[in-house]
Structures are given as C-alpha cells and as structure tokens.
Amino acid sequence: MTIAGDILLRVEHLTMRFGGLVAVDDLSFEARQGEITALIGPNGAGKTTVFNCITGFYKPSEGRIGLCHGDAAIWSELDALTESGQRGISRPDGGLYLLERMPDYLVTQQARVARTFQNIRLFPGMTVLENLLVAQHNSLMLASGYTLLGIFGFPSYRRAERASIEKARDWLNRVGLIHRADDPAGDLPYGDQRRLEIARAMCTNPVLLCLDEPAAGLNPRESAQLNELLLSIGNENGISILLIEHDMSVVMEISDHVIVLDYGVKISDGAPDEVRNDPKVIAAYLGVPDDEVEKVEAEVGL
Amino acid sequence: MADGVEKVRIDTAGALRDAAITALLAFGLFLPLIGFQTVTNIRNELVLTTRWPLLFSIVAIVGVARLAYSFFFAPWLAQRRLRPVAVTPPAWRGFVGKWFVPFAIGFVIVYPAIVIASLGFGGALKWVDNFGIQILIYVMLGWGLNIVVGLAGLLDLGYVAFYAVGAYAYALLAKEFGFSFWILLPLAGVMSSFWGILLGFPVLRLRGDYLAIVTLAFGEIIRIVLVNWVDLTNGYAGISGIPRPSFFGIPFNADDDGFAATFGLAFSPIYRTIFLYYLILALAFLTAFVTVRLRRLPVGRAWEALREDEIACRSLGINTTNTKLTAFGMGAMFAGFAGSFFAARQGFISPESFTFLESATILSIVVLGGMGSQIGVAIAAIVMIGGTEIMRELDFLKQIFGESFDPTQYRMLLFGFAMVIIMVLRPRGLVSTRDPSVFLKERKAISADLVKEGHG
C-alpha cells in the first residue's frame, strides 16, 4: 500500500522550448504522496507550461516525468523502463508511468492524473450531473461493454450507471452543489463552477490532482471554503494535489511544500515558511535583482 | 405596455434609408440577372434584350418588403426579445409536448390505411410513395446525420457519400451474387460504416471549416469515382434492374406465387409500396431508438461533451479520436441502411442521385430542425421534402402564371425562404432546447444559449 511521504511524482530536467523561447528550463522537483505541493511564481514564469507537460497536453522538449502508484519500490525500475521505450508498467501492487511519453487522455486514464484549467472548462450545455458522469466515461464505457451491452439495457450496465450516479451525488454533496444537480453547468455562478470542475476532476478517480489557479476569481469566503475542500480531498481520500496559485492565503495555509519558478527556472523549493522568507523569492515577486530587495522593501514600507 | 415592457420605437427616416439601400442592392444584383436577357433570334444570332418593367417591379417589391419589415416585423421581433425569458409555458404546450410523440407515431403507422380509405388503391399509391416513403428516407438520413452534426458537433458536408456507398453496395451485390435484401441491408450498413471510419482517420485531426471542406471533397470523390469507374458502376448510365425486396421470400408480382396470389388478393402495385413504407418506417424507428439509447450511454454523453469542449474531454481521459470515429461510423451506418433501401425501392441508381445538393438538403434538414433534436429533424424533413413534393401538385398555378410555369422549379426558393424564416425566428432550429440525458430529481430542458454547436 502507499505510505504518505513516498514520492509520487518525479520531474527531472524538464525543459520546454517554444521555438527560441525557453518556457521551462531544466526544472526538477518531486511531489510526495498525500501532500499538497504548490507551484508559484510571477506571471509568465512557466507554471501552466509545467502543468501542460505533466498532463500530456504538451510534449516536453527534454526531461523525464515519472509517476508511481502503490508500492514505492517500483521507482527502482525507472531507468529500466526509460531504456525499454515503454510508456509505463502496471502491476497488481502498483504502477510506474512516464508521463512525457503518454498522450493527454492516457495520462488521465492510466496514470490517473486529473486536472482543472485556469479558464474554467466545463461542458456548459450539459447538466451538473452529466458533467460528473462524463468524467466517469472510461469506467462506464467498460461497464457498458463498449456500448454493446448498454444498448440492450443489460442489468450490469444499469448497476454501474447507478453506482456512478451515487458517486456523482457524493461529490455534489461535498462541494455543496446537490441542489443544482439538474441545472446546466453554464448557469452556475463562477465560484460554483470552480468547485464543480474540481469535483469533475475527482470523479476520474485520480491519484494526483493538478489544479491550475483554483482560487482565481473567488472572494475570501469562497477561497476559505476551497481551502477546506482541498484539505479534505488530501486527508480523507489520500489524494496528492499539485497546485498553481497566486492567492498566497491559499498557498501558505494549505500547502506542505512550495516550489517557486521564475522565468522557467526553479528559484526556491521547500516548506511554505522557508520559501516565504527566501530573498530570491521576494526579489522575483518584486521584480528586482536580489541586492536591491532591502531598498525596495524599505520604499514600500515592508 | 401594461407589463412594463417598453414599446420599441420605429425610426422612420432610418427605415426609408434602409429600404432605399436594399432596393439599390437588389437593382445591382438583378440588373445582370433579370434586367438583361439573351435571346436567340430566327437567324440563330444571340441578341441582348432588356426587361426593364420586370426588373423595376422586382426592385420595387424588394424595397417595399424591406420597408414593411422595418415597420412591422422588426418591432415585433425586438418586442419578442424584450419579453422576459423565464415565462412559464402555457398549459396546452405541456399537454401537446406530452402527447405529440405518441400521436405522431400512431399517425405514421396508420397513415397508409387512412390514405387508402380516403383515396382508394389508385390514388393512394402516389401519397404513400412520394410523400410517405420519400419523406421517411430523409427523416432517417436526417436522424443519422444528426448523430454526427447535432450530437458530436462535427460538420459533415459529404454525408451523401455514405448513402451512395450503401446504395451501390446493395445494387452491385444483389445483382452479381443474388443476395437477398435482408442479408445486404446490414452488409451495406457495415460497408458504409467502414468507409466512414476510413475517411475519419485522416480527417478528424481537422476542425471546423477545414473538416467541412474535406468531407465535402470526400463526397465529391465518391461521386466522381462512381461516374468514372464504368466497369464496376456503369458510370452515368447507372445500374438498372436491381432486385426488389420480397415479402420474406414472396415476390411482389402478378405471378401465381406472387404476394397478391398467395394471400388471395387482386394484384395491385400498392402492396409493394405499403411494404416498403413499413420497411423504411421500421428503419427510421431503429435509427431513432438507437440514437435515443446512445445518448444515455457513455458514448453518447462523450459525443455531446466533445461538442461542448474537446480539451476538457481529453483532460477527463476520453480518447477523442475514437469517440469522433464512432460518431462518424454510426452516422455512416444509418446512411448505408437508407442507401440500400433507396436502391431496393428505386430498382435503378445512378451517380446523379448522390450529388452535393443531397448532402446540403440533409444538412439543412438537421439545421432547420434543431441540432440534436429528433422531433425537430422529423418536422423539418416533412416540411422540406413534403414541401417540394407538394409543389408537383400545384398544377392549378399554371392557370394563373401561364402554361410554361413549373412550380417544381421554385424548390430552391422554398428552401431559401424556410432557411431565412427559421434563422430569423429560431436561429438554433425548430427545437433548440437540449434534453438532459440523466437527472436526479427533475428533468429540465436546457436553453440553446448554453449549448455549444461544436467546432468540428
């Protein structure tokens, strides 16, 4: 079984170039099982690019992204797997996947990494409940015998569908949207749409949840609710979270581990308190060279 | 107004200016089209004549119509838009909504009996054949294309290609090998589906306009192959003498072992027509049933999700390529069924039945009916195809417009009018709301404003 604290995601020497622009430069970090890892940095630092590489939407120019389910001992086979040219190995006691080799849908389907988007991407013309059922597509597809059993209304499919509706209902209760279940997702207020997107990602049954600015556009009360939701996802479900966020009240309060990016380069890595006091981080956020930090701080009265 | 909605003001000067501009545009457009005419005179020379009275009367009609639009129709439209959206529908609408579908199904089942009872055997033939069967073929094609365009949001302009594959598959296999209709019907569906998937592989990387152009080209390629591969398809001359379907082995002819003789009836061609009517009705119902079922299965939900947001689909682990291919294959399969029925009914097929115009007709049925809506598509097919058939019946118009007047020539005009009216009044089609596939407490229709149309 997985033990909290084992390494779940290992990003090594990740580099992403768009023509001449180096968006991410030789980035390496680790995310641990059951922890909330935050990825922060000024605008344009390359955070979303890292996300897109991890979730398969971009193919990295260089680097290796490994993800391990279950028994952490499988990590020892990482180099052998890389040599073999395979996408991943899956065994009863766990699995090891090289995310940079997988197309986006397989990252979710096999490696079980779910994500949300900076600009919310729900299915606006489908109901809240339907949104959550689409997220369970792969398990339902299997239960419907790739449509053949489903079309004749086999009881095994009906059972699976009921179970998936139950699961959706659970998540709607947790994010407080059960009373809106039959309304179109496009009709929900912004904050509710954010929570629904998280619930939808959770319905894919992930081991790692990647959230791209989940608190953007939320008021303080809503972001406090979000904190609670994310902590409960981590604690109750044992899901690890990778988080991009600008709202420091969210980052500092809930994350176990913070990684700071600036111009595609990692400038700091550690516990929230260490990072908060790191002069390099302060300099990056203020947009000045390291040695001028004190002067600027004095100017703005910090 | 009493309910607090402000009355829309009419800008007279603006309306006049608008009418003048419209008349000017019409003049520019119709001057070469109507104003000038080339006539061959008695010495076989081409002479240019002018038709000023006709030109000016048409320009005047356009101008006056535009004026009438600004004064009466536009304010009404604006008023309609101002009305609050969340009006509870009147009680009769709920009643009609509940009973419309069972009533419509009952009606199409007893339709041949009604027609025979009122017109007799001789008169009924035309009504069952031209109206019943012809419309049902298009209803079925509309429902098939609805899967691709309405649910999955993939704009397919070459749908008729799969119809052609089905028709030629039936015609060639039935003639060469003498297979029966019931073997070839599924086989034609499989062949069409195969071609749909084969086309889909390279094409589905494209989106939106590009997908539309490539599917259009594919439709033309199939037609041109049918024209030029004379050894196989007999080119423009087409294939004639295609075996007709029999009543489970009993042929519809005047022989002693024919249908009429077997059941002790007097021979009449209408038995075959009625049989074909129920055959296409069953096929259409099959299409509708499968589509309704699929919408509630994960694959159907994935199609609709694909139409809403493809990137979100991929982030949820849905293989979008496979999902698009199933939509394409499924749509093509129903076109193949319809095609093989068409070949069996006509007994003769040629590439002329599978032109781009057919694709455009089917697509306009889907768009007018409301993408994704079964009832809307059926009504649109009745209006469009029934409308063109009705035009053949309007012979009395010859007494008004003269002997040379042929109402069927105005088919495209009817299409155009139907399009414009629907696009102005109901831009998302007759039935634009989306019915959710699953619900917890209450089924609520989803407004078309929220539902996406897909980007290919």
Task: Describe what this molecule looks like in 3D.
The complex is a heterodimer of chains A (302) and B (456). With 302 residues, chain A is an alpha/beta fold. Chain A contains 13 helices and 11 strands. Chain A has helices at residues 47-54, 78-84, 104-109, 128-135, 137-143, 148-151, 155-175, 190-202, 220-237, 248-254, 272-276, 279-286, 293-300; strands spanning 7-18, 21-32, 36-40, 62-70, 88-91, 94-98, 113-115, 208-212, 240-244, 257-262, 265-270. In chain A, the strands form 2 sheets. In chain A, strands 7-8-9-3-10-11 form a 6-stranded mixed beta sheet, sandwiched between helices. In chain A, strand 1 (7-18) and strand 2 form a beta hairpin. In chain A, helix 4 (128-135) runs parallel beside helix 8 and helix 7 (155-175) packs across helix 8 (190-202). Chain B has 456 residues and is mainly alpha-helical. In chain B, helix 10 packs across helix 12 (320-346). The two termini of chain B are 44 Å apart. The model of chain B is unreliable at 1-5 (pLDDT under 50). Chains A and B meet through helix 3, helix 4, helix 5 and helix 7 of A and helix 9, helix 10 and helix 11 of B.
Q: What's the topology here?
A:
The complex is a heterodimer of chains A (302) and B (456).
Chain A: E1 7-18, E2 21-32, E3 36-40, H1 47-54, E4 62-70, H2 78-84, E5 88-91, E6 94-98, H3 104-109, E7 113-115, H4 128-135, H5 137-143, H6 148-151, H7 155-175, H8 190-202, E8 208-212, H9 220-237, E9 240-244, H10 248-254, E10 257-262, E11 265-270, H11 272-276, H12 279-286, H13 293-300
Parallel strand pairs in A: 3-9, 3-10, 7-8, 8-9
Antiparallel strand pairs in A: 1-2, 1-4, 4-6, 5-6, 10-11
Helix pairs in contact in A: 4-8, 7-8
Chain B: H1 12-35, E1 36-40, E2 46-50, H2 52-82, H3 91-151, H4 160-177, H5 181-203, H6 208-228, H7 230-233, E3 239-240, H8 259-262, H9 270-295, H10 298-308, H11 310-315, H12 320-346, E4 348-349, H13 356-369, H14 374-392, H15 397-401, H16 411-425
Antiparallel strand pairs in B: 1-2, 3-4
